[in-house]
Amino acid sequence: MDRLRIYPWLFALTLSSAYALMVWHSENMIGLSGIPIGADYITYWSASQMAEHGRLADSYDVVEIRSVQQLAAPVSSVWGWFYPPTFAMLLAPITSSNYLASFVIFSIFGLLIFTVAILRIAPPARLLHAMLLAPAIFINLGNGQNAALTAGIAGLGLSMIGRQPIAAGLLLGVLTFKPQLALPLVFLLAMHREYQALAGVMITTVLLATISVAIYGWEPWWAWLGGIELANQLNTKGQLPWHKMSSLFSFLRAIDWSIFAAQIAQAIFAVAILLWTWKRFKHLTASPLRHAAWCAACLTLSPHLFNYDMLWLVPCLAWLAIYADAFSANTMRWLMPAATLIWIYPLAAPLLQTQLGLTLEWLTPLLMLWILHHAERNLAKHRNTT
Protein backbone atom coordinates (compact mmCIF):
# COMPACT_ATOMS: atom_id res chain seq x y z
CA MET A 1 0.00 0.00 0.00
CA ASP A 2 2.90 2.35 0.75
CA ARG A 3 4.13 1.87 -2.80
CA LEU A 4 0.71 2.82 -4.13
CA ARG A 5 0.93 6.04 -2.17
CA ILE A 6 4.51 6.92 -3.13
CA TYR A 7 4.75 5.96 -6.81
CA PRO A 8 2.06 8.37 -8.08
CA TRP A 9 3.93 11.27 -6.45
CA LEU A 10 7.21 10.14 -8.02
CA PHE A 11 5.65 9.91 -11.48
CA ALA A 12 3.95 13.27 -11.00
CA LEU A 13 7.19 14.93 -9.89
CA THR A 14 9.08 13.49 -12.86
CA LEU A 15 6.49 14.51 -15.45
CA SER A 16 5.99 17.95 -13.89
CA SER A 17 9.75 18.57 -13.90
CA ALA A 18 10.02 17.54 -17.55
CA TYR A 19 7.19 19.88 -18.53
CA ALA A 20 8.62 22.75 -16.43
CA LEU A 21 11.98 22.25 -18.15
CA MET A 22 10.32 22.44 -21.55
CA VAL A 23 8.53 25.66 -20.60
CA TRP A 24 11.73 27.13 -19.15
CA HIS A 25 13.67 26.51 -22.36
CA SER A 26 10.87 27.64 -24.66
CA GLU A 27 11.29 30.68 -26.85
CA ASN A 28 8.35 32.78 -28.00
CA MET A 29 6.01 30.10 -26.60
CA ILE A 30 7.67 27.40 -28.75
CA GLY A 31 9.09 24.40 -26.88
CA LEU A 32 12.26 22.44 -27.62
CA SER A 33 10.32 20.05 -29.89
CA GLY A 34 9.02 22.91 -32.02
CA ILE A 35 5.50 22.54 -30.61
CA PRO A 36 3.87 25.54 -28.91
CA ILE A 37 3.38 25.52 -25.14
CA GLY A 38 -0.13 24.18 -24.69
CA ALA A 39 0.10 22.28 -27.99
CA ASP A 40 -3.46 21.64 -29.20
CA TYR A 41 -4.84 24.40 -26.99
CA ILE A 42 -3.60 26.90 -29.56
CA THR A 43 -6.52 25.75 -31.71
CA TYR A 44 -9.05 26.35 -28.93
CA TRP A 45 -7.65 29.80 -28.22
CA SER A 46 -7.56 30.77 -31.89
CA ALA A 47 -11.14 29.65 -32.54
CA SER A 48 -12.31 31.52 -29.43
CA GLN A 49 -10.58 34.69 -30.57
CA MET A 50 -12.15 34.41 -34.01
CA ALA A 51 -15.57 33.74 -32.47
CA GLU A 52 -15.22 36.85 -30.30
CA HIS A 53 -14.69 38.92 -33.44
CA GLY A 54 -17.59 37.34 -35.33
CA ARG A 55 -15.41 35.08 -37.49
CA LEU A 56 -16.15 31.63 -36.05
CA ALA A 57 -17.02 30.22 -39.47
CA ASP A 58 -13.56 31.20 -40.71
CA SER A 59 -11.94 29.14 -37.94
CA TYR A 60 -12.72 25.98 -39.93
CA ASP A 61 -10.48 27.29 -42.72
CA VAL A 62 -6.91 26.17 -41.97
CA VAL A 63 -5.42 29.22 -43.68
CA GLU A 64 -7.55 31.65 -41.69
CA ILE A 65 -7.00 30.02 -38.31
CA ARG A 66 -3.25 29.73 -38.87
CA SER A 67 -3.00 33.51 -39.15
CA VAL A 68 -4.57 33.81 -35.68
CA GLN A 69 -2.38 31.04 -34.23
CA GLN A 70 0.63 33.12 -35.24
CA LEU A 71 -0.51 35.72 -32.71
CA ALA A 72 -0.02 33.19 -29.91
CA ALA A 73 3.24 31.63 -31.14
CA PRO A 74 5.25 31.58 -34.38
CA VAL A 75 4.14 28.05 -35.27
CA SER A 76 5.48 26.47 -38.45
CA SER A 77 2.44 24.27 -39.03
CA VAL A 78 -1.31 24.61 -38.53
CA TRP A 79 -3.63 23.05 -35.93
CA GLY A 80 -7.07 22.48 -37.42
CA TRP A 81 -10.32 23.29 -35.61
CA PHE A 82 -12.86 20.47 -35.96
CA TYR A 83 -15.19 21.04 -33.00
CA PRO A 84 -18.83 22.13 -33.30
CA PRO A 85 -19.62 25.83 -32.65
CA THR A 86 -20.98 24.94 -29.21
CA PHE A 87 -17.46 24.26 -27.93
CA ALA A 88 -16.27 27.73 -28.94
CA MET A 89 -19.28 29.12 -27.09
CA LEU A 90 -18.44 27.11 -23.95
CA LEU A 91 -14.82 28.26 -24.11
CA ALA A 92 -15.71 31.95 -24.33
CA PRO A 93 -16.10 32.64 -20.57
CA ILE A 94 -12.67 31.18 -19.72
CA THR A 95 -10.69 32.57 -22.66
CA SER A 96 -8.85 35.88 -22.71
CA SER A 97 -6.70 37.70 -25.27
CA ASN A 98 -3.58 36.42 -23.45
CA TYR A 99 -2.76 32.95 -24.76
CA LEU A 100 -0.73 31.65 -21.81
CA ALA A 101 -3.21 32.93 -19.20
CA SER A 102 -6.07 31.34 -21.13
CA PHE A 103 -4.22 28.02 -21.29
CA VAL A 104 -3.60 28.04 -17.54
CA ILE A 105 -7.25 28.91 -16.77
CA PHE A 106 -8.53 26.23 -19.16
CA SER A 107 -6.23 23.59 -17.65
CA ILE A 108 -7.20 24.47 -14.06
CA PHE A 109 -10.89 24.47 -14.94
CA GLY A 110 -10.65 21.00 -16.49
CA LEU A 111 -8.73 19.67 -13.49
CA LEU A 112 -11.32 21.11 -11.09
CA ILE A 113 -14.18 19.38 -12.91
CA PHE A 114 -12.19 16.14 -12.98
CA THR A 115 -11.35 16.39 -9.27
CA VAL A 116 -14.98 17.00 -8.32
CA ALA A 117 -15.97 13.94 -10.36
CA ILE A 118 -13.39 11.70 -8.66
CA LEU A 119 -14.44 12.96 -5.22
CA ARG A 120 -18.07 12.18 -6.02
CA ILE A 121 -17.28 8.72 -7.39
CA ALA A 122 -15.09 7.33 -4.62
CA PRO A 123 -14.37 8.20 -0.98
CA PRO A 124 -11.23 10.33 -0.54
CA ALA A 125 -9.48 7.49 1.27
CA ARG A 126 -9.58 5.31 -1.84
CA LEU A 127 -6.18 6.35 -3.21
CA LEU A 128 -7.53 9.71 -4.35
CA HIS A 129 -4.05 10.99 -5.07
CA ALA A 130 -3.40 8.07 -7.45
CA MET A 131 -6.44 9.09 -9.50
CA LEU A 132 -5.54 12.79 -9.57
CA LEU A 133 -1.85 12.14 -10.32
CA ALA A 134 -2.42 9.54 -13.05
CA PRO A 135 0.03 9.84 -15.99
CA ALA A 136 -2.95 10.36 -18.30
CA ILE A 137 -3.58 13.67 -16.51
CA PHE A 138 -0.14 14.90 -17.49
CA ILE A 139 -0.46 13.56 -21.04
CA ASN A 140 -3.66 15.58 -21.35
CA LEU A 141 -2.06 18.73 -19.89
CA GLY A 142 0.98 18.40 -22.12
CA ASN A 143 -1.24 18.16 -25.18
CA GLY A 144 -3.41 21.11 -24.10
CA GLN A 145 -6.47 18.92 -24.51
CA ASN A 146 -9.95 18.65 -23.00
CA ALA A 147 -9.88 15.05 -21.73
CA ALA A 148 -9.92 16.13 -18.06
CA LEU A 149 -13.02 18.18 -18.79
CA THR A 150 -14.83 15.45 -20.75
CA ALA A 151 -13.85 12.67 -18.31
CA GLY A 152 -14.97 14.86 -15.41
CA ILE A 153 -18.34 15.58 -17.01
CA ALA A 154 -18.83 11.89 -17.83
CA GLY A 155 -17.88 10.84 -14.31
CA LEU A 156 -20.17 13.41 -12.67
CA GLY A 157 -23.08 12.72 -14.98
CA LEU A 158 -22.96 8.94 -14.70
CA SER A 159 -22.59 9.08 -10.91
CA MET A 160 -25.87 11.05 -10.77
CA ILE A 161 -27.98 8.77 -12.97
CA GLY A 162 -29.34 6.61 -10.16
CA ARG A 163 -30.88 9.42 -8.08
CA GLN A 164 -31.04 12.38 -10.47
CA PRO A 165 -31.41 10.97 -13.98
CA ILE A 166 -32.71 14.16 -15.61
CA ALA A 167 -29.98 16.32 -14.05
CA ALA A 168 -27.44 13.68 -15.06
CA GLY A 169 -28.65 13.82 -18.65
CA LEU A 170 -28.58 17.62 -18.69
CA LEU A 171 -24.93 17.47 -17.64
CA LEU A 172 -23.98 14.66 -20.00
CA GLY A 173 -25.50 16.66 -22.84
CA VAL A 174 -22.58 19.08 -22.57
CA LEU A 175 -20.39 16.28 -23.94
CA THR A 176 -21.97 16.75 -27.36
CA PHE A 177 -19.22 19.29 -28.06
CA LYS A 178 -17.15 16.11 -28.58
CA PRO A 179 -19.50 13.91 -30.64
CA GLN A 180 -17.13 10.96 -30.93
CA LEU A 181 -17.48 10.40 -27.17
CA ALA A 182 -21.04 11.59 -26.69
CA LEU A 183 -22.56 9.38 -29.40
CA PRO A 184 -21.67 5.98 -27.85
CA LEU A 185 -22.90 7.27 -24.50
CA VAL A 186 -26.24 8.16 -26.09
CA PHE A 187 -26.43 4.66 -27.59
CA LEU A 188 -25.77 3.09 -24.18
CA LEU A 189 -28.37 5.28 -22.47
CA ALA A 190 -30.96 4.21 -25.03
CA MET A 191 -29.97 0.53 -24.90
CA HIS A 192 -30.27 0.51 -21.09
CA ARG A 193 -33.60 2.39 -21.25
CA GLU A 194 -32.35 5.37 -19.28
CA TYR A 195 -34.98 7.52 -20.96
CA GLN A 196 -35.01 10.35 -18.41
CA ALA A 197 -31.26 10.82 -18.72
CA LEU A 198 -31.56 10.56 -22.48
CA ALA A 199 -34.19 13.31 -22.47
CA GLY A 200 -31.82 15.48 -20.44
CA VAL A 201 -29.06 14.94 -23.01
CA MET A 202 -31.39 15.96 -25.83
CA ILE A 203 -32.55 19.08 -23.98
CA THR A 204 -28.99 20.28 -23.38
CA THR A 205 -27.95 19.46 -26.94
CA VAL A 206 -30.82 21.42 -28.48
CA LEU A 207 -30.40 24.30 -26.02
CA LEU A 208 -26.66 24.68 -26.66
CA ALA A 209 -27.13 24.47 -30.43
CA THR A 210 -29.96 27.02 -30.36
CA ILE A 211 -27.94 29.49 -28.29
CA SER A 212 -24.92 29.08 -30.57
CA VAL A 213 -27.04 29.79 -33.64
CA ALA A 214 -28.47 32.88 -31.94
CA ILE A 215 -24.94 34.13 -31.20
CA TYR A 216 -22.97 33.04 -34.27
CA GLY A 217 -25.60 32.22 -36.89
CA TRP A 218 -25.86 29.12 -39.06
CA GLU A 219 -22.68 29.63 -41.07
CA PRO A 220 -20.30 28.08 -38.49
CA TRP A 221 -22.44 24.94 -38.40
CA TRP A 222 -22.19 24.48 -42.16
CA ALA A 223 -18.45 25.12 -41.93
CA TRP A 224 -18.17 22.53 -39.15
CA LEU A 225 -19.90 19.88 -41.28
CA GLY A 226 -17.33 20.54 -43.99
CA GLY A 227 -14.58 20.31 -41.38
CA ILE A 228 -15.75 16.83 -40.37
CA GLU A 229 -15.10 15.60 -43.88
CA LEU A 230 -11.64 17.19 -43.87
CA ALA A 231 -10.79 15.57 -40.51
CA ASN A 232 -11.91 12.19 -41.84
CA GLN A 233 -9.73 12.59 -44.93
CA LEU A 234 -6.71 13.58 -42.85
CA ASN A 235 -7.16 10.52 -40.64
CA THR A 236 -7.74 7.98 -43.39
CA LYS A 237 -4.73 9.26 -45.36
CA GLY A 238 -2.42 9.17 -42.36
CA GLN A 239 -1.95 12.93 -42.11
CA LEU A 240 -2.96 12.86 -38.44
CA PRO A 241 -0.44 11.40 -35.95
CA TRP A 242 -1.42 7.72 -35.89
CA HIS A 243 1.22 7.07 -33.21
CA LYS A 244 -0.87 9.24 -30.84
CA MET A 245 -4.22 7.76 -31.85
CA SER A 246 -6.03 5.12 -29.82
CA SER A 247 -8.37 3.30 -32.15
CA LEU A 248 -8.44 -0.04 -33.92
CA PHE A 249 -8.74 1.87 -37.20
CA SER A 250 -5.45 3.74 -36.72
CA PHE A 251 -3.72 0.51 -35.64
CA LEU A 252 -4.88 -1.33 -38.75
CA ARG A 253 -3.95 1.55 -41.06
CA ALA A 254 -0.49 1.63 -39.49
CA ILE A 255 0.01 -2.03 -40.50
CA ASP A 256 -1.09 -1.23 -44.07
CA TRP A 257 -4.71 -2.34 -44.06
CA SER A 258 -6.78 -0.58 -46.68
CA ILE A 259 -9.00 2.33 -45.64
CA PHE A 260 -12.17 0.35 -46.41
CA ALA A 261 -11.06 -2.79 -44.54
CA ALA A 262 -9.97 -0.76 -41.50
CA GLN A 263 -13.27 1.14 -41.45
CA ILE A 264 -15.29 -2.08 -41.63
CA ALA A 265 -13.21 -3.65 -38.87
CA GLN A 266 -13.62 -0.54 -36.69
CA ALA A 267 -17.40 -0.55 -37.21
CA ILE A 268 -17.77 -4.26 -36.37
CA PHE A 269 -15.50 -3.87 -33.36
CA ALA A 270 -17.45 -0.88 -32.00
CA VAL A 271 -20.86 -2.50 -32.44
CA ALA A 272 -19.66 -5.74 -30.85
CA ILE A 273 -18.26 -3.91 -27.80
CA LEU A 274 -21.42 -1.83 -27.31
CA LEU A 275 -23.65 -4.90 -27.58
CA TRP A 276 -21.46 -6.93 -25.22
CA THR A 277 -21.40 -4.09 -22.68
CA TRP A 278 -25.18 -3.80 -22.80
CA LYS A 279 -25.74 -7.55 -22.44
CA ARG A 280 -23.11 -8.04 -19.74
CA PHE A 281 -24.04 -5.11 -17.47
CA LYS A 282 -27.73 -4.48 -18.20
CA HIS A 283 -28.79 -6.13 -14.94
CA LEU A 284 -26.73 -3.68 -12.88
CA THR A 285 -29.09 -0.73 -12.40
CA ALA A 286 -27.20 2.47 -11.51
CA SER A 287 -24.17 0.38 -10.51
CA PRO A 288 -20.69 1.93 -10.37
CA LEU A 289 -19.39 -1.06 -12.33
CA ARG A 290 -21.92 -0.38 -15.08
CA HIS A 291 -20.87 3.27 -15.21
CA ALA A 292 -17.23 2.22 -15.49
CA ALA A 293 -18.09 -0.19 -18.29
CA TRP A 294 -19.91 2.58 -20.16
CA CYS A 295 -16.90 4.89 -19.94
CA ALA A 296 -14.58 2.16 -21.20
CA ALA A 297 -16.95 1.18 -24.02
CA CYS A 298 -17.19 4.80 -25.19
CA LEU A 299 -13.49 4.62 -26.04
CA THR A 300 -14.02 1.93 -28.68
CA LEU A 301 -16.52 3.50 -31.09
CA SER A 302 -14.70 6.28 -32.91
CA PRO A 303 -11.61 6.01 -35.14
CA HIS A 304 -10.78 9.60 -34.12
CA LEU A 305 -9.65 9.09 -30.51
CA PHE A 306 -6.21 9.96 -29.17
CA ASN A 307 -4.00 8.87 -26.28
CA TYR A 308 -5.20 11.69 -24.02
CA ASP A 309 -8.81 10.47 -24.34
CA MET A 310 -7.76 7.39 -22.36
CA LEU A 311 -8.05 9.63 -19.30
CA TRP A 312 -11.66 8.37 -19.26
CA LEU A 313 -10.30 5.14 -17.80
CA VAL A 314 -9.24 6.87 -14.56
CA PRO A 315 -12.86 7.36 -13.36
CA CYS A 316 -13.32 3.66 -14.20
CA LEU A 317 -10.52 2.85 -11.76
CA ALA A 318 -12.16 5.10 -9.16
CA TRP A 319 -15.47 3.25 -9.52
CA LEU A 320 -13.62 -0.04 -9.22
CA ALA A 321 -11.86 1.15 -6.04
CA ILE A 322 -15.23 1.43 -4.30
CA TYR A 323 -15.33 -2.37 -4.08
CA ALA A 324 -11.70 -2.94 -3.08
CA ASP A 325 -12.60 -4.33 0.35
CA ALA A 326 -15.12 -6.76 -1.13
CA PHE A 327 -12.70 -8.54 -3.45
CA SER A 328 -11.08 -11.76 -2.36
CA ALA A 329 -7.32 -12.04 -1.92
CA ASN A 330 -7.08 -14.19 -5.05
CA THR A 331 -8.93 -11.56 -7.07
CA MET A 332 -6.67 -8.77 -5.81
CA ARG A 333 -3.59 -10.70 -6.96
CA TRP A 334 -4.54 -10.21 -10.61
CA LEU A 335 -6.74 -7.14 -10.32
CA MET A 336 -4.07 -4.84 -8.88
CA PRO A 337 -1.45 -5.55 -11.60
CA ALA A 338 -4.08 -5.21 -14.34
CA ALA A 339 -5.41 -1.92 -12.93
CA THR A 340 -1.85 -0.65 -12.46
CA LEU A 341 -1.10 -1.42 -16.11
CA ILE A 342 -4.05 0.73 -17.19
CA TRP A 343 -2.92 3.51 -14.85
CA ILE A 344 0.70 3.53 -16.02
CA TYR A 345 0.34 2.61 -19.70
CA PRO A 346 -0.02 6.21 -20.99
CA LEU A 347 3.49 6.82 -19.66
CA ALA A 348 4.95 3.71 -21.30
CA ALA A 349 2.99 4.03 -24.56
CA PRO A 350 5.36 6.49 -26.36
CA LEU A 351 8.35 4.19 -25.79
CA LEU A 352 6.45 1.13 -27.02
CA GLN A 353 5.14 3.03 -30.01
CA THR A 354 8.67 4.14 -30.90
CA GLN A 355 10.02 0.59 -30.63
CA LEU A 356 7.12 -1.17 -32.36
CA GLY A 357 5.93 1.58 -34.67
CA LEU A 358 2.38 0.78 -33.55
CA THR A 359 -0.14 2.15 -31.07
CA LEU A 360 -1.56 -0.42 -28.69
CA GLU A 361 -3.43 2.01 -26.48
CA TRP A 362 -6.75 0.98 -28.02
CA LEU A 363 -6.39 -2.27 -26.09
CA THR A 364 -6.57 -0.58 -22.67
CA PRO A 365 -10.39 -0.06 -22.76
CA LEU A 366 -10.69 -3.77 -23.55
CA LEU A 367 -8.51 -4.60 -20.56
CA MET A 368 -10.71 -2.36 -18.43
CA LEU A 369 -13.85 -4.16 -19.61
CA TRP A 370 -12.21 -7.52 -18.91
CA ILE A 371 -11.36 -6.37 -15.37
CA LEU A 372 -14.92 -5.14 -14.80
CA HIS A 373 -16.39 -8.39 -16.14
CA HIS A 374 -14.40 -10.52 -13.71
CA ALA A 375 -14.80 -8.06 -10.85
CA GLU A 376 -18.60 -8.17 -11.16
CA ARG A 377 -18.55 -11.96 -11.31
CA ASN A 378 -16.38 -12.07 -8.20
CA LEU A 379 -18.72 -9.72 -6.35
CA ALA A 380 -21.73 -11.80 -7.39
CA LYS A 381 -20.10 -14.91 -5.93
CA HIS A 382 -19.30 -12.99 -2.76
CA ARG A 383 -22.95 -11.91 -2.40
CA ASN A 384 -24.17 -15.46 -2.93
CA THR A 385 -21.93 -16.82 -0.17
CA THR A 386 -22.92 -14.22 2.45
| Cα-atom radius of gyration | 21 Å
Quickly count the helices: 18
User: In terms of structural class, how would the helical and strand content be classed?
Assistant: mainly alpha
Provide the low-confidence segments as ranges: none
Descriptors:
18 helices, single chain, 386 residues, globular, 68% helix
What does this structure look like?
The protein is mostly helical. It has one domain. Helix content is 68%, strand content 0%. The chain has helices at residues 2-24, 41-52, 62-72, 85-91, 99-121, 128-132, 135-143, 147-160, 165-172, 179-191, 195-216, 219-236, 248-254, 259-281, 288-298, 313-321, 329-356, 364-384. Helix 2 crosses helix 3 and helix 15 packs antiparallel against helix 16. The two termini are 27 Å apart.
List the helices and strands and how they pair.
Layout: H1 2-24, H2 41-52, H3 62-72, H4 85-91, H5 99-121, H6 128-132, H7 135-143, H8 147-160, H9 165-172, H10 179-191, H11 195-216, H12 219-236, H13 248-254, H14 259-281, H15 288-298, H16 313-321, H17 329-356, H18 364-384
Short recap of the structure:
The protein has 386 residues and is mostly helical. The protein starts with a helix and ends with a helix.
